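Hi, here's the filled form for the chain we discussed.

Project: internal
Contact: R.S.
Residues: 122
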Amino acid sequence: MAKTIMIVDDSASLRQVVAISLKGAGYDVVEACDGKDALSKLDGRKLHLIISDVNMPNMDGISFVKAAKQLPAYKFTPVIMLTTEAGDAMKQQGQAAGAKAWVVKPFQPAQMLSAVAKLVLP
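And the returned structure, exactly as it came back:
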């Protein structure tokens, strides 16, 4: 059975690029356009990994990760932040919220897939 990964980003074109890479590597993909939309899709289904942007309208990525980690079903779901933010302060906020990895845009699909393969839940 394929593993399911959620992509949270307000850029439809970026979600598409990430989804194509992930689907090509055999993953199922759930897309959300911001943190609020993503939270509404955390309905108890098994997610093996979440990839989230930081800067989004309605609810930013750090707030989303904090909220997701409060839900028992997603407490241990690994999170990769995929963002233009490269500053250490932002990375520390992400780690404190529960992010396991930080991939800076523009990214190489191979680099992202290798982070995904390392972190995705069994």
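Let me know if anything looks off before we file it.
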